[in-house]
Amino acid sequence: MDADVTDSAGPPSDPDHSAGDKPQGRSQEESGTEGVPPEGGAPEDVPSEDAHSETTAPEPAPSEGGTPEDGTPEDAPSEGRASEGRAPEDPTPGAVEPEKAGSAGDGVQTWADQPKDGIVAARKRHWLRWTALAVSLLVLVGAGTSWWLYKKLDGNITTDTSAAAELKAYEKERPTPVVMDAQNILLIGSDSRAGDNRKYGRDDGGSQRSDTTILLHLAADRKSATAVSLPRDLMVEIPSCSTADDKKTREQFTQFNAAFELGGTACTIRTVEKMTGIRIDHHMVVDFNGFKDMVDAVDGVEICLKEPIDDKDAHLELPAGRQTLNGEEALGYVRARKSLGNGSDTERMERQQQFLGALVNKMQSNGVLLNPTRLYPVLDAATKSLTTDPGLDSLRDLYDLVRGMRDVPTEQVQFLTVPRQPYRNNANRDELVEPDAGDLFKQLREDRPVAVVPADELEEAQQDREREQDGEADGAGSESPTPTPTYSGSSAADDLCKQ
After folding, report:
1. Whole-model pTM?
2. What is the per-residue DSSP string for 199-215?
3. 118 CB neighbour count, 10 Å cutoff
4. Is the confidence at residue 468, as pLDDT, over 90?
């Protein structure tokens, strides 16, 4: 081996120091390699066959000036520094060249010596890829689930196409809308005893009458909602209607709920329009089980009872005081009549109105309408029990309707019964009180406000109204604005336990 190579690398007999008294690399110290020349050749006092099992030491590091200690420029080939003036020799078999050793990390740099920024960046890129993949999968799964839930709820709704066709045939007879943005929806509670409803009374072969009918008026500005109950025993003019077997009924003066039995929803709508002069925009028919499920979906509705209830016909037994009713109990409560109060349909309608107000209040106060996880069971229960016109037979249509009512203050969600009195020819039937009923219908038709007060405050409210009309409120002879008609009723904000 040439002398210039030996001088630059340090004598083999001094394993602790390389040329220039610089310390050995960490990998060389750990492997215990001693005296291996930078060229890869074996030292003279070591058998050549042992060279195959040892790792070649790295070339000396450059000085601060950027030039190795032997004076060779930094960018010059390592072979040129090993032997000047002659071609480089092949390395000894089994030895590893310095540059290759560095690439393997055996002689130049360990894992701990590598740049930290590069490692962190690589790890970040790795986790970003996995995070993006996970988020993409979650989005796909969420979208698929949402679509499945949407289609399920949408498919729950039954469309009443026959009513739409019947109403279209009598379009010329129907009232013309006065305020386009206002909405008038007829809510019909079916009292069929067929199928699952058999336990609530006699099954008469599936025939049904409208047990509860409510005209719901939504103001054009969506700042108020007025629900008017129409007594089932109200004596009205029912027009000639088409029956289920395509026959025609005769026009007749009879009790209101007969219209639903004779000609279904279309006949009921035409009867209401003829009586009120109000154009019905949409309708919903709800059965018993749907009502029960909706109450259960909001975890029950709280009421207060002044006296205990024990009504076998309504399947209801409740103690007096404050309590929360589940769906089954709520249904018995709103349908009971014989064991509560004077047994009249009037008191039952008032109970229904108060309970619906408490239900609306429960839904708004608990954030049901704004909480998808709580809203879904309500929508599921509602859509399963709904039969609607084609304008409300999709989940989007119902959502738009609910969204419009979402911000209505509970004190502006009002319930009342159309002004009526016992029918002169039969005290078990009702008739409208005029002009009060006509004034109410006119207010709703023209989208004007109405006011409701408890029954015991109605007389005083009517006296105030008369004084305003006579000019006494603002001074005799002065003109005053038309006072808001006031009726006996309640609002969703009323606490049933404080009455």
Report:
1. 0.66
2. GGS---TT---EEEEEE
3. 9
4. no
